[in-house]
Amino acid sequence: MKYMLLINTTAEAAEGCSVEDWMAYGKAMKEAGIWVSGYPLADLTTATAVRVGPDGERTVTDGPFAESREILGGYDVIDVPDLETALDWAARCPGARDGGTVVVRPIADFGI
Amino acid sequence: MDEPAATDEPALADEWAADAGSLAEASVESMFREERGRLLASLVRRFGDLDLAEEVASEAIEAALVHWPVDGVPAKPGAWLLTTARRKAVDRLRRDQAYAARLAILQVEADRAGPVPPADADGDLPDERLQLFFTCAHPALPAEDRVALTLRCLAGLTTPEVARAFLVPPATMAQRIVRAKKKIRQARIPFRVPGADELPERLPGVLQVLYSIFTEGYAASSGPQLQRLDLSEEAIRLGRILRRLLPAEREIAGLLALMLLIHARREARTGPDGAIVLLEDQDRGRWDRTMIEEGSALVVAALTGGPPGLYGVQAAIAALHDEAADVTTTDWPQIVALYDVLLALAPSPVIALNRAVAVAMRDGPQAGLALLEELADEPRLRGYAPYPTARADLLHRLGRLPEAAAAYREALDLAGTEPERVHLLRRLESIGTPGPDGA
């Protein structure tokens, strides 16, 4: 069962943990054999939004700008037996501390 | 009653045998309420899916309704139901491989070949409901869904009964239960008891669910019947199981004590006409002394060896009431002190309201009324019938009759159950002031 851990961080959360913390977390997931994929995201100021209108016209804008203090800072996809295990991994994520939040979402399964 | 291993199943069998002729009229839900929860828990553990478990549990119960009146009730009805349900589940999964794949049920063959689970102390199937309890009370589910799901799956209530407990339309409740089951399945919330490190975090949720079942049984919030003893006893029984399984958890002792100490007064709580009898007017000779002794002993266990918990303190208050000969010799100073502990643990206007009533007993109605007036602007007490009722009682005792009558009428507009309304109408009549219709 695959889950995506959406790592929502705040400025304080980003400061609160070191690169070593993140590397240790990534290493632990890989060693446990549960890590599927995942990336940290570059700063939100580098984001660009695209929308396509009903006439097919493309609108490109800077942003989006953060509407709350928390911004998506990265994600990991893990493959574990159940939600309980996924929650345990989410709790170990450095991004869950210091005001950050890790949202755990099951990957949709459209197979029959 | 002295038999060492009284079982639920022979009682059920007797009931069927005695009354086989009226099977059609029997309430299937109530006859199988007990069986259904055990059956579901066992099936969920084997197949890992609540929908499939519910489906085949219902089919097995339907099969019992067809076969038992003809063939007689089997010696072990619970085992019969489980075997029948398992067979139906295996058939269903064989027939519908896509469904099996979607549920990722791989252990079907293993299940069929697997050993028969060891019998429980009562001689039939083991009670596997504890893990279902932790799943139904899982924090990943919305709080309102946890109680709903537990009442549906473990207490065996029908969806309309659960809806009534929550005062929402049955369709709304049905949607809520479907939503909760969908989350359990799709997010794969496991069916298992949490480990020792997770327990302090998870247990309060289960206790909350148990207490909600108890109060639902004790005082249905609306409708003509005030007490529903079956549910209260179910909650107490589940509380005993929890206590047995997790004996070191003092709040389980506290909750079980609280339920027993309240339930001990059941016979005296309603009059012959079904109306409420207040604590102060109850015939204490009709209180269940054995239950009070058991509850009081549990209070000691709950409050010994660590900081007090919410249920333990509430149970201590209930014990002081139960051990007093009458309302005047009740240890009100101690009760007020316990309410202070409760308020420190969990500040709440409802606890403050109860404390004010206890202060009125200790220091007189004027002192209690002054505390009640301080709570007048509490949003959580708006629309809460016990608040105007308590005010009315104190105003009545102070001889401020027109104000008391007005407060009783306010409470009448808010009262949910018929017995509550009857009680309030009588209080209103005792004041001798004309009712709202000018009679």
TrEMBL record, chain A:
The record's section on InterPro entries has: Dimeric_a/b-barrel, YCII
Residues folding into a coiled coil are none
Superkingdom of this protein's organism: Bacteria
Q: Which SUPFAM superfamilies match?
A: Dimeric alpha+beta barrel
Give all residue intervals belonging to the YCII-related domain: 1-110
State the similarity comment: Belongs to the YciI family.
The protein, known as: YCII-related domain-containing protein
Lineage of the species this protein comes from: Bacteria, Bacillati, Actinomycetota, Actinomycetes, Streptosporangiales
